[in-house]
Specification:
Length: about 170
């Protein structure tokens, strides 16, 4: 067996794959509770205004509930956006997926020449960038600063892992 055949047997499995999504702190049951309480309070207040003769106000209370519902739904729809970062020995791939499920942008870099830059602002926030040659791509924008720091540690470890030479074994 010559060296070329041995190198082809080196696995190119994913040593690192992360799917980053925006955090939403309100669960579905929590959403139903908030909307139920808001609807009940609006209904009671609307009835009170109707009893004192200000019946047109009742419709505005319903409109408020409808607008809050629409705002929550738009927020949950935006949370379906994601960013996937995959590191193999051959590629470092960043895929941005929109809230509607369509892939917006795919960036591919060579992991050997890529580095992770973490820029910390005076207020303590951290911005992460993957840099390769003249290309600089912001990543992990949907995470908080502490989560970005943890993610940076994991991604740097993955980049170190794929940079290590793999020697064929017999």
């Amino acid at each position: 067996m010559d060296v070329e055949q041995q190198t082809e047997q080196v696995p190119t499995a994913l040593p690192f794959r992360a799917v980053l999504t925006p955090h939403r702190s309100l669960s579905r049951p929590g959403f139903l509770i908030v909307m139920g309480v808001l609807a009940a309070v609006s209904f009671v207040a609307g009835i009170a205004f109707t009893l004192i003769g200000a019946w047109p106000v009742f419709g505005f209370f319903g409109l408020d509930v409808l607008l809050v519902y629409a705002a929550f739904k738009l927020n949950y729809r935006a949370a379906r956006a994601s960013e996937t970062i995959e590191v193999t020995r051959d590629d470092l791939k960043i895929t941005h997926t929109a809230a509607n499920g369509l892939t917006q942008r795919v960036t591919t870099m060579n992991p050997t020449w890529s580095r992770l830059d973490a820029l910390e602002a005076p207020d303590g926030s951290v911005d992460l960038f993957l840099t390769s040659r003249a290309r600089r791509v912001p990543i992990a924008r949907c995470l908080g600063s502490d989560q970005r720091r943890e993610f940076a540690v994991a991604l740097r470890a993955a980049l170190r892992l794929v940079r290590e030479p793999v020697w064929p074994t017999r």
